[in-house]
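Might you be able to consider the sequence and fold that I enclose below?
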Amino acid sequence: MNERVSLINDYVSGDFGISELSVEYEVSRKTVYKWIERFESGSWEALKDQSRAPLQHPNATSAKAEAAILALKAKKPLWGAPKLHSRLVALLGEDCPVESTISQILRRHGLSRVAKRRRGAVPSEQPLSHCVAPNGVWSADFKGWFRTGDGHKCTPLTISDGHSRYLLCCQGLREELGMVTVKPLFISTFRQNGMPQAMRTDNGTPFASTGLAGLTLLSVWWVRLGINLERIEPGQPQQNGRHERMHRTLKEATTNPARRNLARQQEAFDAFRREYNEERPHEALEQKPPATVYRPSEREYPQRLPEQRGYPDDWEKRMVRKGGQIKWRGKDVRLTQALWGQEVGLRPMEDGCWEVYFEHLALGLFNERKGHIVPSKRLIIKPTEDDNDLL
């Protein structure tokens, strides 16, 4: 820079010609002319080194593509770079940038968030069974309650298909979460989508109880419909991780902030369900929406509850009475009130012991001498011949 300033000073003084300046500063005449032109166009600041970077990079994201990314992000604020990329491929074709570039653009505009450090995944001791096709396993749960703008509680009941992640039901409830409240929602879902092979839940009301085999009126109804029961271990929500992950997305999209009343909140749930099923790409489905993978079950909901399956001829049969007991040689044997009106079968064992079944469920071991039933440690699914190809 000092040499350039000195050269210009000598030129301005008029004591040196171009050829003399070229010899004095040991540069070509072309270089002398370059610095004189720089000085005359921009004074002393123009003598500083200028960037050699090209004005346009051949691989730079076009303004059109960047505008499309920002516009789609504005419409889908909860979508990250992978989901945006899957949608932009159809919109932009070959001009669509890769995921990392989309992520950088979002970060540059302050539209991305730093992901929290995740703990190592905890392996599930009881992986989802029959999940090789839709309707093998449905998951049902209540997302934690919250208050709408008018101060009332809202507890959404959610039902989803384990294979396709299709959200079958998302209904906000305000009443007590019992059999009378939730059964109509399951009936509506069964009529619209058919029935699954198995239903996976936690151990809370109304899905399970502390009684024999954890049975409730709701789970007994499922068994009568031919639906297997699957329950996660207490305190192990990762065993139903697919459904829990959906709950996190549901919370982000519909409860921040909560709507002013239950009717408006249900509108938000319905809109979320449509987008989640039909628009939102899912990474586990190769960035396809669940609706492209899910198909209704071929097991239609019956107009009438099917008759109970018969037990083998060498088994004892007993009808469960109103108090949840059966009669055995003139004495009452306690089972569970959830089985009121249902027939149970007792398979003969040795030494006065009987294995107690309700439909295909092994409930426990009945000892005649002690006069009570020792419950099974875990809910055991005893497959029937019709289930063998599904297990």
In short: Residues 121-126, 380-391 have pLDDT under 50 and may be disordered. The CA atoms of residues 133 and 332 lie 45 Å apart. The first strand starts at residue 137 and ends at 142. Residues 316-390 form one domain.
